[in-house]
Amino acid sequence: MADELGTVSIGFLGMGIMGSPMAQNLIKAGCDVTVWNRTKSKCDPLVGLGAKYKSSPEEVTATCDLTFAMLADPESAIDVACGKNGAIFGISSGKGYVDVSTVDVASSILISKQIKDTGALFLEAPVSGSKKPAEDGQLIFLTAGDKPLYEKAAPFLDIMGKSKFYLGEVGNGAAMKLVVNMIMGSMMASFAEGILLSQKVGLDPNVLVEVVSQGAINAPMYSLKGPSMIKSVYPTAFPLKHQQKDMRLALGLAESVSQSTPIAAAANELYKVAKSYGLSDEDFSAVIEALKAAKSREA
Q: pLDDT, tens digit, for every residue of 128-140?
């Protein structure tokens, strides 16, 4: 299997919290991987594992059959694909570009058009999952775009993830990811309220986490994040600034189709408060600190 995978040269753009472990899993599976990142030092551990390095996205796509991109936000995703020395200047007919970043629908469509104008194929494939699932190869890929590229990329998606969905035309993958993250952000905000309320009325919040984890509303997120939230520790698996960005994009998506999302809108305001308290780079579970701040101001 490793020999078979090694016949397709893989590029990977973006060595952040998610991109680095995803690329590592490809390397460990025997894939021929070439990496790039704005900060070159973040590529060094991957090169140490056997990856090649190129100094621009253009050079990566010029030398690789299939290139994955995992960037922090729509602006970065567009710049890496279409900006100076971007992926579009190296990619060509017969090659493929798989954008696994979380972006809005319009940005994904823009990148798709630029890539496809070169004759190459495009697939959007944002992921559901954060740092630990990325490390464990347990991500969920929400793909849309060129079906032949989906089929070609499938073995590599299977290395990095536990499941994949093909959702049709470009934009559908981006929309699905924003809906999922909108729900997640609202759930976390409500969970934070529950933890603080339980403490204020004299209950043990650790018991609350246990009760929740055994009932119908259980989600792995609660038992994973709850204990550290109670200790006011927020090891970053999914940065709060990215959660707020996804809430903002999801609200924009909702507005574009005149869908009311009052709960998500309220949760978004809480993430904005948390950002104003300097918590952008903490895990998104640090949103609980915005409620503590509100509580202390009221007191």
A: 999 999 999 999 9
